[in-house]
Amino acid sequence: MKLKLCITILSIAFFVLNSCEKVIEFDLSEAKEALVIEANITNNKAPFTVLISKTSPYFGDQTDNQVSGAKVSIYSDHGTPRYFTEVSAGVYKLEKTNAVDGYWYNIDVEYEGVTYSARSFMNEPVPIVDMGISYFDGFGFFDSGYKLNCYIRDPANKENFYRLKYYVNGKLNDSEISLYTDKLFDGMVIGLGQRSMVFQETDTLIVEIQSIDEAVYDYFSTLETISGNVMEQTASPANPISNFNNGALGYFSAYSFDRRTVVIKDFLSGK
Amino acid sequence: MVWVRLLGTFILWSMLSGAFAQSKYTLSGTISDVSSGEDLTGAVLSVQNTNYSTICNSYGFYSITIPEGDYHISVRLIGYENQLVPVQLRANQLINFKMKEISYELDNIEVRGERADQNITSLEMGSVKINPKQIESIPVFFGERDLIKTMQLMPGVKQAGEGNAGFYVRGGGLDQNLILLDEAPVYNASHLLGFFSVFNSEAIRDANLMKGSIPAEYGGRASSVLDIRMKEGNLKDYQTTGNVGLISSNLSLEGPIKEDVSSFMLSGRRTYADLFLQLAPDKDLRDAQLYFYDLNLKTNFKLNETNRLFVSGYLGHDKFRMQDQFGFDWGSKTATIRLNHTFNEKLFSNSSFIYSDYSYQIDIEGNNDVILGSRIQDFNLKQDFSWYLNARNTLKFGGNLIFHKIVPGEIEAAPESVYSSLAVRPRRAFESSLYVSNSQQVSKRFQVYYGLRLALFSNVGPGDFHQFDEDGNWVETISYDYFKWVKTQGGPEPRLALNYQFNTQSSVKASYNRIYQFIHLLSNSTSSTPTDVWLPSSDYVKPQLSDQWSLGYFRNSKKNLIETSVEIYYKNLQNQIDYKNGADLIFNSTVEAELVFGRGWAYGTEFLIKKNYGKLTGWLGYTWSKTMRQFEQINEGKAFPARQDRRHDVSVVAMYDLSRKLKISAAWVYNTGNAVTFPNGKYVIDGKVIGYYTQRNGYRMPDYHRLDLGLTWIRKQTAKFESSWNFSVYNAYGRENAYFISFRQSEKDPEQTEAVQISLFKLIPSVSYKFKFK
Question: Which of A130, A218, B145, B377 has its CA 20 to 30 A from that of B594?
């Protein structure tokens, strides 16, 4: 949100000359391991993917924590369960399946005798209807470059939640989590832009707009408060609000999406 | 209601105890400064060779009733020469005392006669009094003398963060301090993200922080009262005072409008923090505007012998602007009109009308023109009476009625903007109170204060009132029309204080008080931000309630040269507020749904040794304390330390007069770390490393310590002109104290995670120049 941005800039302006930063040693105690599930299904032909791992000590090596041998199944409210196959350690896939928008989906992950379940509603896809580009001069710590505005027509009289993902030259840009609600814009044509992310003239972008449900929006917005800029972080960080039960971390998102490819240079030359 | 009955009995008893005495007369009047004519607060008037004494009130009025006879009346006040006046009391008598300020001459500085032993004899405990004159040579931060920063060096008062003007008192929250400037509540007492307080010390006469034993005339905030009074203006001579500092300057004018009848004081201050930005590497930052200013004005008129009128105001504003991109403005306004009336030698009245206002506004320009803002306004009528019933009893009673109007959030968008306009409907409420109290000298050695305040809070229309279920889910919204009363809550607040004097040099005191707090500050960020939103109590948000018990031992030695005290306290807090994970506090019309409610408690002990006179002055304070919170929905329902919880706090402040012209000073602070939440593990989501949190505030920040040094060099001191230089060094040994610690993926090796400490203000030298024309 713009407001957060203002405060950030104001903070930075004051701290810029007066702060110093150094890496320190800090002893953190070890917590009991928790299961982490990242489950995504879409309205597209892409395989359903579930990643399962465990938490590890904060300063330890982060590899080798994938969880093998879990039983993962999915079913729509009135459907029969279909089972995932583990294609590599901790990676579970279900191919040749299609989810349809307008339905609730349920996922069960069974591991060491405990079943972790979550539900997610697949909203209708909301396509990008128009795009615009503008040059941003940058200030302070904010880089200069091109900003992309994606316009969508928000479905009226219902709450909608969106997440945008940008793949720049084939690589996901994860510097910020782009989330939007139609709280102030129900039924309008909404322009969705970037907070601090900028693109360069030579970039080729794939923009993906995900139509997500409220629980997934809550998950990512609470995730953002512990993973974003330090100055924006909350005073009392806590784990993001998961839609899984039994203390599992992570989320289950059933989303529909639209994708556009943009070459900044072509866009500028009017192609 | 037992309290009401008990109080009634006490009052009756106190009235009777005076009724059968021998013929007594009342001595009353005002106590003021001889050179400026300004009223003085806190002077102690005592009758020699008897046990009778009184303290003048905050308007300089005193009244004492004693048996017929011949006496010597002594009047004492810190920083002023003692007065001894013979009185033949045969009838009620009016005497106005004029006190002369001590001029510090080196050769006889040690002989100041008897110093007031008020800390032993008064009923006050847990009180910190600061007079700007006393702290003139203390080391300062960025060249700005700041009352609140000095207060933070006293036991029981904790600074909210490096260089921050916010403070926690005895385990209370930042919003639990009632900060009054000439009776007007100040909702946001800081400038520039909290690094400066809004109180320009050139405009301040005195400040009194009450940590415990809060008298019945105060209420509305759960933990403390900071009562600040502005200077009234010299009634005899004109005076111009100025300070030129590195990042701010101020100029004050005062003098008579009509000699001995009316006077004014006007003081202004502005920072040029923008100049710092000039050093920034980025052009856009160099072009930004970032400053604050404030103005204080006070005038007073003696209408006649019995009536005096005061008008005072404060205006403070912060401004931040980035070219044409956006602006961010915030500030407070207060105004007080008050009338002091003396009915007779025993009954004194103060009537006030008070206005208070805090707002912020953000405007974003360009193709998305939009203005966002929020505001709180108070209209307050207040009536206080002091009734000097007889030699043993001083009654105070009165009441006030505050109308609060809170605009939680407003968005005003231009038609072509992608934003749409939104207004969260204003919330309106009346906060009312009635109080009565009595200070009673029960015996030669035993004094007691008992009081009762009835505090009520009523939500009124027009407005939307939201209903929530027990889990905080919104159920329905009911719109109320004008003058519709929605919900009233509150209750009685008993206040009690006892003082038993073992002898003239030592006493033991105890106190209890209960206070309701009806409006709550919503803020969940690491740094203090101007985007404060205040939330009134309602059906769903119950008033905060605090009960505090304290006990203290006070002892002076060497003819009151050295004051020592030990106090212990226990504070219980009910209906405390915290936030759900990811709470959205801004522009949310049903913000109540984002809150969780719980309880808190705090206890601790405070030691203070203070030397007020001589070449060397200063104090040594130590606090041991513990502050806990418990919420069903947080930390699995287990109690956890509050953010401001820290075990040990030490402060040492010393000021030494090398010569008449040269004064040096030092302040050293040490505290163990605040409670903080850090991750206990990590995992990966979307390819990014995320911290795994298992306990709230389960870790401690590293220990904090810092030394500040100051030097004041008085260049000129004549009857017409004075000037001095102050040199200060903040954090003189350059300690890198942790401002915050963040945990993140290493930039060099994303496979690794690291802890990064960010420190602010490593060795900040400053210089300021002060002048005064008389």
Answer: B377
